[in-house]
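Suppose you are handed a protein chain with no further information: no name, no annotation, nothing but its sequence. What can you learn? This example shows the usual starting point.
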Amino acid sequence: MRTTQIICTIGPASWDQQVMQSMINAGMNVARVNGAFADTAELDKVTTLVRNCQGSAELMMDVKGPEVRMNKFAAPIKLALGMGIMIGSTTDAAIYPANYPNVYEFLTVGQRIVIGDGDVELVIREIKNGVMHTEVVYGEELKPGKAMNLPGATFATATLTPKDMENLKHALTLGWEQVSASFIQNAAAVNTIRGVIGNNMKLIAKIEDQQGLDNIDEIMPLVDGIMIARGGLGVELGLEKVPMAQRLLIQKGLEYGKPTITATQMLESMMHNFRPTRAEVNDAMTAVLLGTNALMLSGESSAGKYPVEAVKWLAKAIDEVESQNLIGHEVLN
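A reasonable first move is to predict its three-dimensional structure. Written in structure tokens, the prediction is:
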């Protein structure tokens, strides 16, 4: 019996009933919906898909919380080093923060803006009349609707947005078992979400920035588990800091007896390839070796070409480690 679980993000690639059944057969334990893109109709769809399958799989609602996201402008924009990009604060602008139009008020010249998982980076050169004049530091294409990460910036926003609240209450009504909450930074954020769900859902805190790491000892006793959100951590801390942050958080999970989920780009190459890279398999197995309780697929299972095969490869990696009884033997010195 496999003890390390597999969590799969559900999207267009996995909306087919046969694909969903095949993913469960291959080892999927939890179906996750990304609240940044989903509405209540999608929650209904995924509920029906999962509940109609043979075998058991829990449902996880992901709420995005204090995330700044660009508007869905018409088409991707080709970029070049040093190119200027204007980010406005009203719907009249070509590009603007759709859910936080006045975020510019909390930012200063020199602030980095990292788009998505880090494919594009801009830097603010001037803020004038509600418009951020930015320069391209790197990246080839700016895609609509992507998250705008603001490393080091502090800005006031709610733990749950109105859309989060709508999705979360609907998931409760549908009997979903888990909620993963983005950018949990302290006990107060945990208590806000717990006040909505009570004990009706397992609460998974996504640790995505330095504040979450710094306050992990006040977060851990209040949650049912944590997610090591390596995408956010890579943007906020720098890529070189992520491996040790992952080790620390898994160790904290072991100390507190709380499950840890390792997430982001687990088998990223399988978005387009039938097989993962050797480095990806090693990464997955290392997380299991350290003692993580679950591995999570993101785009690989929601929008990739081979969602079922991705689950099978995670299952192979997990089985290889578990068969040798090595879980948790790797510890921090």
